[in-house]
Amino acid sequence: MVEGRADKAVCEDRFIDSIWKGVDLTGGAECAAFVAEYRLSRIQNVCQGAQIRSDRTGEPMPAFSLQTCRAALAPRPSPAKPAVVAEQRAPAPDVAVPGLDEKAIARVVDANWRSIGRDCSEVAPRSRSHEPLNVTVTVTLDVAAAGEVRQVAVRARGYPDLERCIERSVRAWVFPAAERDTEVGIPLVFAGQ
What we know:
- This protein has 2 domains: 8-73, no CATH class; 102-191, TonB (TolA/TonB C-terminal domain), CATH 3.30.2420.
- 40% of the residues lie in helices and 14% in strands.
- It contains 6 helices and 3 strands, in the order αααααββαβ.
- It has helices at 8-21, 29-32, 40-57, 63-73, 102-120, 160-171; strands spanning 134-143, 149-155, 182-191.
- α1 packs across α4 and α5 (102-120) packs across α6 (160-171).
């Protein structure tokens, strides 16, 4: 926040946390002006993660999360087409090439997520009281068609050492080969000590 105004990145993080936790944490009107500017890929990733968590636990997705994901991911109107077009080209065939499916992603995450706790225990957030300290972490991976992790982005607000450690740990994961690159979003709650 700067001079009483909301910061776009902080608002986007609150929006993502809201979807994951199922309650509105955005702060209301101060963040409303930024909603159209949020990165759609991040929203898609956390919505997918919330759905996967719901499927695994058997618990329904919170109503707030479900409504927010539907609204945020609804098709946005495209800009008006120009009135005069000099050259008309035939549209390219719309052939979807499959990337990794949810089951393949879930198998790799299930097989490897414990490595984060093992590798990052030294930089785990510590609580000053006796209550456990949990940190919401969003991991976004760019997985090449061959299955190797090409890029990793980790958001653990306020814990840069934890972000770097998780990034190093996740870079070693190997996914099955797919026909195209895939962006994978993994929402986590890192339980500190």
